[in-house]
Amino acid sequence: MKKHNKKLSDFKINETGIVTAVLGKGQIRRRLLDMGITNDVKISLIKKSPFGDPLEVFLRGYVLTLRKSEASLVEMKMLDEEGNDA
User: Fold this and answer.
1) If you compute the radius of gyration of the chain from its CA atoms, what whole number of angstroms results?
2) What number does CATH give the domain 5-79?
3) Which of 19, 21, 41, 47 is deepest in the core (most CB within 10 A)?
């Protein structure tokens, strides 16, 4: 994994990135893809619960809640505050 890439589960609140890969196999990968988490989609982390699980993210104009284990399967390319590559 490149230095500027990280897992969605490792994002801090208000960080934004672009999906570079959806990992996992079978049903869990299909579920993530069905929820709209596909390559080149912009995702922002809105909130984390006090213990870090689940996470609330914003993508494609809606808010989605994910388990940390699900978010760890999503590789992201970081964007800066202006939406440019970090």
Assistant:
1) 12
2) 2.30.30.90
3) 19
- What stretch of H or E contains 26? helix 26-34
Number of CB atoms found within 10 A of residue 25's CB: 8
Q: How far apart, in Å, are the Cα atoms of 71 and each of 9, 24, 59, 80, 82?
A: 5, 11, 13, 20, 23
Give the model confidence (pLDDT) of 5-52 as tens digits. Answer: 899 999 999 999 999 999 989 999 999 999 999 999 999 999 999 888
Do 57 and 66 contact (CB within 8 A), yes or no?
A: yes
Question: Token match 């994910």: residue?
Answer: 66
pTM score: 0.84
Length of the chain: 86
